[in-house]
User: Which sequence fits this backbone?
């Protein structure tokens, strides 16, 4: 993929402003209660690192890793858990932190699995909400940026494990990937 195949969709400044706003909302909503952030690897690692620095209440972090199989830019809906939580979420206020909610299959699967572990509360925070592609009934409680359709890379979002390091989020012309 060349630089000519992509254009900045969301600048690093816009991303930082949205992350700051989300951190303030979460801090306000939970006041002095401790929360547990559950990052969904690999895509959320930059987002969760920036988000936790904007949260002003006691916080702990753990990670899960899931894979959804499919071809290219489409998901099959088949979800595999590759890394489980290391800490218990029972009786904790838990916020799942996801880089992007697209079809919703992966997030729905994770959400339902976490509910079985009896958290005190369970919410979802996503940097990017791509509603046009939603195939299941799941919504985020905290949304950074909503967008229509399009394949994006950067700020943790990848294509074949590349481009996560880009500081901005780029829209890619899919025909040229």
Assistant:
């Amino acid at each position: 993929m060349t630089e000519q195949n992509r254009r900045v969709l969301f600048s690093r400044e816009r991303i930082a402003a949205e992350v700051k706003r989300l951190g303030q909302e979460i801090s306000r909503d939970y006041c002095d209660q401790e929360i547990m952030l559950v990052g969904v690897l690999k895509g959320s690692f930059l987002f969760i690192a920036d988000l936790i620095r904007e949260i002003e209440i006691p916080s702990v972090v753990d990670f899960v890793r899931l894979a959804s199989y499919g071809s290219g830019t489409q998901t099959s809906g088949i979800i595999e858990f590759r890394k489980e939580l290391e800490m218990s979420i029972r009786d904790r206020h838990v916020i799942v932190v996801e880089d992007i909610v697209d079809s919703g299959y992966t997030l729905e699967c994770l959400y339902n699995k976490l509910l079985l572990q009896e958290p005190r509360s369970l919410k979802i925070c996503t940097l990017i909400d791509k509603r046009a592609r939603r195939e299941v009934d799941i919504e985020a409680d905290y949304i950074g940026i909503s967008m229509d359709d399009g394949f994006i890379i950067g700020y943790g979002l990848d294509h074949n494990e590349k481009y996560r390091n880009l500081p901005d989020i780029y829209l890619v012309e899919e025909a040229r990937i």
The chain has three helices and nine strands. Strands lie at 6-10, 35-41, 59-69, 78-83, 93-101, 121-130, 142-147, 151-153, 169-172.
